[in-house]
Amino acid sequence: MHHYSFFSLLSGALGRHRRWSQAWRSPTPRKAYDVVIVGAGGHGLATAYYLAKKHGIRNVAVLEKGWLGGGNTGRNTQVTRSNYFWPESAAFYEHSLQLYEGLSRDLNFNVMLSQRGILTLAHSHHELESLRRWANAIQVNDIDSELMTPEEIKKLVPLMNMEARFAVHGGFIQRRGGISRHDAVAWGYARGANALGVDIIQQCEVTGFCRQGERVVGVETSQGTIAAGSVVLSVAGHSTVLAGKLGLRLPISSMALQAMVSEPIKPCLDTVVLSPTVHMYVSQSDRGELVFGGGADIYTSYAQRGGLPAFYQNVTALLELFPAFRQLRLMRQWAGIVDITPDTTPIMGGTPVPGLYVNCGWGTGGYKAIPAGGDTMAHTVATGKAHPLIAKFGLERFTSGALIDEGAAAGVAH
Amino acid sequence: MLQISCPYCGVRDEEEFRFGGESHVTRPALDVDDRVWADYLFNRINPKGIAYERWLHSYGCGRWFNVARDTVTHEILAVYLMGAAKPQLSEVTPAREAQPKRVRTSEGSLS
Amino acid sequence: MSRSGAHRVEKGGQLDRARKVSFTFNGRALVGHVGDTLASALLANGISVVSRSFKYHRPRGIFSAGVEEPNALLRVEIDGLAVPLVRATLQPLVEGMVVTSENCFPSVDFDLGRIFDRVHGLLPAGFYNKTFKWPNWHTYEDAVRRMAGLGTLPTGDDKTSFFRHHLRCDVLVVGAGIAGLAAALEASRAGAQVALIEQDGELGGRALHERVQVEGRTAKSWIDAAVSELARAPRVRILKRTLVAGYYDHNVLTALDLSDKEHPDGSVQRFWIIRAREVVLATGAIEQPLVFAHNDRPGIMLAGAMRTYLNRYGVAAGRRAVIATNNDDAYRTAFDLHDAGIEVAAVVDARTNAARNIEEGIQQRGIKVLRSSMVVDTRGSTTLKAVAVDELANDGRSLGANRVWIPCDALAVSSGWNPTVHLYSQAGGKVRYDSSLACILPDNCRQRVRIVGAANAEFAVSSAIASGTHAGREAAAESRPVPRDAGREHRSETNGIRAVRRAPQASAARQWVDLLHDVTTSDIELAVRENFVAVEHLKRYTTNGMAVDQGKTSNLNALAVLSDLTGRGIETLGTTTYRPQFMPVTFGAIAGGATGDLYVPPRHMPAHRWHVRHGAQLDDYGGWKRPACYLRGAETREAAINREVQAVRTALGLFEGSPLGKIEVRGPDAARFLHRIYMNNVTSLQPGKVRYGLMLNENGIVIDDGVFACLSPEHYLVSTTGANAERIAGWLEEWHQCEWPDLDLVLMPVTTQWAVLTLAGAAARTLLQQLPGDIDFSAAAFPHMNYREGQLAGRRARVQRVSFTGELSYEISVPANEAEAFWDELMQRGAQLGIAPIGLEAWLVLRLEKGFLHVGSDTDGTTNPLDLGFGAMVQKKAGDFVGRRSLLRTADQETSRRQFVGLEPVEAGASLVAGAHVISTSPKRSQGFVTSAAFSPTLGRSIGLGLLERGHARIDEIVTVFDEGRTLQARVVKPAFFDPAGERMNG
Question: CA A96 → CA A100, A393, C607, distances in Å?
């Protein structure tokens, strides 16, 4: 692997950038792998990377129907944070954030993590009480969070309309939260996994599974049959479609989540702002675009485009909090298909089908979970035993009733 | 924006409706085991293709009804009343030619 | 003086030369004419550099005459409001407008940012991924952010009124060029209701500014006839200067009014939402440039744009022009310039010959044509000085050795026209590259859309008319099948294009692909070398096509370069999907008027005006503006709340609870239905009695509580919490309609018909007994948890004797329109009893003193009835109810769950706060939280309620409460701090 640094860039410039090597190969699939991961999004690629790096399992293929990082990894709004309510969630997402904090150096690829803080707003006295409950929960979990007064918020985000229809009564901030560059995360993991010997096979659609008795022993693909010791599904948006081919029913609905960006302007918003009440979040990218979104469209969808009502809602909410953006323009809008679970917590680990693992159900927030998702899935597949951080994220919880309902506790979709 | 043909009111904007998820889900009796109960509560077909689902005309007549909708193209292939059986639709129905099918049921006739 | 600016030609153009318009550009006073765009006026004044590029800060001039403009994005101030990134090519010139260039310092002519151009070798595609990792990205980020960002925030006084407008039609025609006019005419003649939307201020499209014949007449006379017929047609609506930018499901499209003028309703920039049975897209095509070294200099312009400036605005882009092309169409520019007296130094054609009629035109005019040649380099800095031309080998991949420099100050470039398929793609249509036509074509779409004219590569006028007419006729006929494939039968002319778009690279000199984002062919080479060859990877890695012009003049060339480098045909590479918006749309327009109070209109209670007149402090509670408390004199909020609590405890309070949900349930099966909905027994309730009940969802979680009253055996009245009034009404309907349609009953939400005024306090009965009426309020006749209805002070009234405060209390419903008068009457008559109006905050303190549950505060989305201590009640209930089965799961029965308790600080004077957690210290973890807390004026100390792990078994235990890093000790108690026996409310 060609090491990246300022000096290699300098020497590249002197050689007119002719000596750089491929970030990843485009191999033809082998007949068999120890592990086949379906889906080359952030989670699939990270799983492959940690399998190879931490567990020495390098005979791994990541199969991708389209192009790597082209699903929700390349469509999300890039927010990273660990300000979760329940201890199970907090431990997992904090692990993820800590991996993010070292990721650029670990991968030797700048994922541009910007820990500019994520501010969550309360719009009434009673919301402030629930936010206080949330912020204290985070502190009890030994993760950073601070309550903020309206005056402190106004100072941090001068453009915010404090007297909006739902006036800002306060909020809390996780200063270690922020944004990073989603494409870079996918590319960095792909490059890292590739260097460790993982085959990333793009344009390879999984059309079915090979079974020996109950056990899954391989996959049928558009590039032929591939045998596998274990199969991991990391196909957000299409989880039920693939699991359905094995007769496995999942508690997941696919919904379109929209995001949109403005034309790029000079820095005017230095924090990620999230309002559960008006259901909107916004940050300004390093390129200067305001990146924002809100709730998912109301009906199930596999079309990667959003509808008008949620679009209006997002834009109106943005202007309600930031009237200064009124004369700016919307440049582009798009949607990703997200897996919605009943309790807004992911589904990770083994399944009733031997040899099959799932990593799905991330709802609207899988991006921030990529490093920990990959790390814990790799551990689970390598050892055959759920990683302690995801022990409670298994499918069994829906039968026992032991749901981990972040939405219910925090009143915000994750 | 979906244009949904309410069987009682006619074509209206999506914003007048509420989506109610998969239809034709049978509620089990109290004595089923946890697995069956969980399947009823949480598991859904979530098809990529034709979904049979229920919608409420909440800012209109307030009635629930069923819709067969393609989840990829968002085409509405049929609208039929609560309690009516699923219409048989082929996955390749070229719905563009016709208005949504109104399925007649014993509950009443539709315009 | 008929000329404004040195580059205005003597005559020609469609300007009002008699009327001048003054404006300033970067402080210079300039003059243009009515009819000018900002771009044409700048060109007329000889302004060559209008902006600096995004990354390398290179000087840039006006490049196009339309939506595709990558360079002339300027800050424009009109009437004191300055807006960034205005397309000078679309912006009409306005008297007094102040125009400035952005992203440059100190000025557009001398920009220090040019240093980035000098070190461009260090800034290849994705350079930021390879470096800036040590110590972390945040160290560099501030500096990088300040360099990025093209514009700056709008400034000045924003008086703009935005409105959303709606339009419904049989046939929507987008684009009023020849094809669109033909479609609209034909659809209108067939009797359809037609909407025709054109982005320009004039109808006619490109033909307006081309010297072409249409059906044997001049274009102008054909257009005039068409426009006048459409104007007379009764069912045709024409919107000019309106840009259709979004195409959504079910043929719903959105458009932005681009005019700066106010409409009669006071709006500017209307946002249109259009619902069309059929759509005809006649969106035209966008000319693509050629790729060669230093192809970004000011003075280089699309060939079609150069003749638009000449023919429409009477502006010569230069004095000596070269035209570079790979197709016939650009010869129009050469001929028009020549015929207007502007020197055409040469046409550089990548092909060996042009069409016969073109060859004749060349001969007649004696224009020099350099064949099988390409422009390979240019000279100049702020203006173009010369272009280098070289011969192209037969394979199109190498050059001859005869490079010649041709002096010129304008270069027109064309690599053919590419159909504007953006809306088609947004509609879900597939597009593909066609190698024989060398452009992107619409292929097939599931929506009811037809695409005609240049947008479907039907470039000839006759083809455009034929396809437009056909589509108009088909669209007007009801329920005609839309052909799945975009039609091809009308394509004839291909402009003889040769698909050579990039000059072979002879030196290290950069060849630009994306002007705005400064993406060059070497960036694409690097991407290919590093295997970013999927089209989306290429786009994201190089950022080609991701700037505000969305790659309208760079996406196809990037594909061509990628195809060159990989040896794969463009048709095999795929294209990126076009997303809304076609062109950036103002946020304010999208939102329309729906901001401020119209964002979510606040709801006011029936006696609202009384509250406002009497010092109510209004807060938002679930969308309702309700009195939090009533201030007397200079009193603080805390003092007012304490006073109101004491008024209820010692005398009498009046509280408006109108948002309380009220649903009537009638019918033979009303009781059976409610019995399945409520956790509590319903069937045993006798007429005139009231019972407290909980509703669960199917997962066993408490979603609402309230009382229900039996009015008669087939008539019940359900009360819900105010926040859930609509939700529960919908919830009941859903169960009835979808699950139990066999039950015979009717549900009727009556929340807003009845105002609810609640009297609470020992004197409540005394007051009510003073009022005329037929309800017996004596303790014996009307005990606690009973319902009566009748006449009260001359009004119909429904009275429930229930208590949320622990005092003797009557909840009185009267018709909503009589609420204010009744309130007033109660206040007057109650004056001698010490009555006080009570706000919601005191009300919540009163219930907290009683330890009554407040669903939503004391419960969350995980709380089940067992957690609240209702286990015995569940046990006793006969039959199924919603959520019952879930309560049987192991996790729902765990004793380690968080349970509802009371909490009191151990230390006198210490305060509990809602949102604090009860923690164990080793290991440090949360065991639950304080859900409600307040200072109790009655008890003179702080009290709280909470959800605590194993709480029911921990009464009297001392626990540690954590808030924002501080801790205090609290005692776990039963959740009833005041009058636990309930003597006061039962009395």
Answer: 6, 15, 53
Fold of C505-568: Arc Repressor Mutant, subunit A (1.10.10)
Res C267 pLDDT > 80: no
CB spacing of C149 vs A266 below 8 angstroms: yes
Closest CA to C545 of C570, C518, C508, C584: C518
CA dist B78 and B52 (Å) reads 9
Q: List the domain boundaries for chain C.
A: 1-156, 161-285+419-490, 289-414, 505-568
Is the complex ipTM more than 0.90? yes
Instruction: Identify the DSSP state of A269.
Output: -
- Search chain A and give the residue with CA nearest C542: A183
C-beta of residue C470 within 8 angstroms of C-beta of residue C458: no
Tell me the CATH class for C1-156.
alpha beta
d(CA C495, CA C438): 10
Give the SS3 label for residue C612. helix
pLDDT (tens digit, 9 = 90+) per residue, B20-29? 999 999 999 9
**Count of residues in chain C:** 987
Interface of C with A in 127-186 (CB under 8 A): 127-134, 136-138, 141-142, 144-146, 148-154, 158, 160
CA nearest to C83 within chain A:
A327
Structure tokens given for B37: 């109960």
Cβ contacts of C328 within 8 Å, gap of 6 or more: C354, C355, C358, C495, C496, C497
DSSP type of residue C576? P
- Cβ separation A307–B51 shorter than 8 A: no
Name residues whose C-beta falls within 8 Å of residue C392's C-beta, 6 or more positions apart in sequence.
C350, C372, C373, C374, C398, C399, C400, C500, C503, C504
Q: Which of B56, B80, B50, B77 lies closest to B66, judged by CA?
A: B80
**CA–CA dist A392, A371 (Å, integer):** 18
How far, in Å, CA of A225 to CA of A222, rounded?
8
What is the tens place of the pLDDT at every residue in C16-55?
Answer: 999 999 999 999 999 999 999 999 999 999 999 999 999 9
Global pTM reads 0.96
Tell me which residues of chain B, numbers 15 to 74, contact chain A at a CB-CB cutoff of 8 Å: 15, 18-19, 21, 34-35, 38-39, 41-48, 51, 53, 69, 71-74
Mutate to test the interface with B, among C170, C247, C248, C250 (most CBs of B within 10 A): C250
**pLDDT, chain C, mean:** 95
* Mean local confidence (pLDDT), C880-889: 97
In this chain, the answer to whether the domains covering C1-156 and C161-285+419-490 adopt an identical fold is no
- CA-to-CA distance for C81 and C472, rounded, in angstroms? 42
Residue C831 CA, chain-centre distance (Å), reads 53
Residues of chain A short of pLDDT 50, as ranges, are 411-414
Kindly report the CATH class assigned to C161-285+419-490.
alpha beta
A398 CA to chain B: closest CA distance, Å? Answer: 6
Q: What is the pLDDT of residues C678-700, one digit of tens each?
A: 999 999 999 999 999 999 999 99
pLDDT tens digits for range A109-147? 999 999 999 999 999 988 999 999 999 999 999 999 999
C-alpha C867/C-alpha C694 separation (Å) is: 13
Upstream peptide bond of C135 is cis (omega within 30 degrees of 0) = yes
- Minimal CA–CA distance to C314: which of C38, C2, C14? C14
CATH of C289-414, one of 3.60.10.10, 3.50.50.60, 3.90.1150.10, 3.20.20.10: 3.50.50.60
Which runs of consecutive H residues, i.e. helices, occur in A295-341?
308-321
**Number of A–C residue contacts, CB under 8 Å:** 315
Task: Give the 3-state secondary structure of residue C931.
Answer: strand
Nearest 5°: phi and psi at C309?
Answer: -60, -35
- Start-to-end CA distance of chain A, whole Å, equals 36
Q: Which of C208, C387, C417 is nearest to C304 (CA)?
A: C417
Residues of chain B positioned with their CB less than 8 A from the CB of C886: 37, 41
